[in-house]
Amino acid sequence: MLTGTSGMEVGNANAAECRVTLIEDSANWERMAQFSLQFRICNESGVNKSEWITFGTYYTDVRSEDHQGNLSIIAYDAMMKTERSWVSSIPSASMPTAFPITARAWATLIQNTGLVTFDDITTLDDTVAFVGLNTSTTIRDVLRSIAAVHGG
After folding, report:
1. Per-residue confidence at 1, pLDDT binned at 50, 70, 90?
2. Cα distances (angstroms) measured from residue 34 to each of 19, 28, 37, 54, 118
3. Exposed end of the chain (fewer CB within 10 Å): N or C?
4. How many angstroms separate the Cα of 121 from the Cα of each of 41, 124, 149?
5. Which has the closest alpha carbon to 125: 148, 103, 144?
6. pTM of the full predicted structure?
7. Cα atoms in the Cβ-side hemisphere of radius 13 Å centred on 36
8. CA of residue 151 relative to chain centroid, distance
9. Core vs surface per residue 30-62: b (16+ CB within 10 A) or e
10. Is the pLDDT of residue 2 over 50?
11. CA angle 71-80-113, nearest 5°?
12. What is the pLDDT of residue 6?
């Protein structure tokens, strides 16, 4: 089950949640395991199939096993890794020395932390700048602000 009323969303700073139940032997499922969902589109007979389409990478958060040995997993995408202070996540050598700082500069700083990456179609307006941020602001909050000023 993927959360959201309209399915997969692109261009926002919401964390996607994935709930999976594994019916087979699940003893080898590691804690905090990373996995990707992949799908194929096919016709009703199942004969014509598309290539495998990746539908996100998820990180295991909660694991629970029932009395029959089935493993239920709740996992979140990389956006949950950004729930940390921007001050403690950006290396001091890269820390902005003056504000305002543009959305593009913020995106570069955030991408250099290795927590999230921006895809090739992401375009950011260089005229959008942030005056300053509270030290308790998270990287996710910064990403939300960038998404908001870019309309998505």
Report:
1. very low
2. 13, 13, 10, 14, 19
3. N
4. 24, 10, 17
5. 103
6. 0.62
7. 8
8. 18
9. eeeeeeeeeeeeeeeeeeeeeeeeeebebebee
10. no
11. 130
12. 53
Residue 56 has pLDDT above 70, yes or no: yes
Where do we find the tokens 């909050």?
A: 141
- Cα separations in angstroms, 60 against 14, 54, 73, 123, 151: 17, 17, 7, 30, 30
Nearest to 59 by CA among 94, 91, 32: 32
Helix axes 103-112, 139-149, angle to 10 degrees: 140
Structure tokens belonging to residue 19? 């709930």
Res 117: pLDDT:
80
**Residues in Cβ contact with 76 at an 8 Å cutoff, skipping those fewer than 6 apart:** 15, 16, 17, 18, 58, 59, 61
